[in-house]
Amino acid sequence: MKKHLLIIGAGPGVALGVAHRFGHEGFAVSLVARRAGSLDERAGQLRVAGIDAATYLADVADFAQLAQVIQTVIAERGPVTLLHYNPSVYREATGLTLEPEQFMQDMRTDAGGLLAAVQAVVPAMQAAGGGAVLVTGGGAALYPSGDLLSLSVGKAAVRTMAECLRQTLEPMNIRVATVTIVGGVGSNDHFSPEQIARAFWDLHQQPRDNWTFETIYR
Length: 218
Prior knowledge:
Number of domains: 1
CATH architecture: 3-Layer(aba) Sandwich
Structural class: alpha/beta
Order of helices and strands: EHEHEHEHEHEHE
CATH class: Alpha Beta
């Protein structure tokens, strides 16, 4: 059975870098995002590179829709070997300017979607013998900013959720880990999507008796 990477939040940065890296390592790649045009463009880039890529539309903050789309992915493409959760909301707002309802909506994307995605992929993943969940973390989880309330709380929340999921899933032979990126993606060569994707690959390649939860990429 071919290895299958499912990327939730398939943007043009880290997610595309991960898709290329794992695709070149023999993974079929399924991309999930909200916008068809940009999603199809990314899949086209992967196919030109010889990678088996397919696209699916879903709003990560709509948990029922996300779960349904993931079930479609599994039915069409097979069990997920590796789930990569990548979404986050960058919103410049402080504790005095951010509307509480907007904050809670942001949390649905930043962290809630990870829970929905994991619950959707795990039954088939476990039946196939195990797999992995990798999460794109951010330095705001470690160094929160008052001007970026949603991002700071969201990255802290998804980091903590990943650790809780790790404790639940690792006994089922499902790896959970995160790359916490302390720096601006694309700001220089070190923070290029290609270099960050290498950190995800190195983390994924760790042997079971030496699994670590977090790589801090700085």
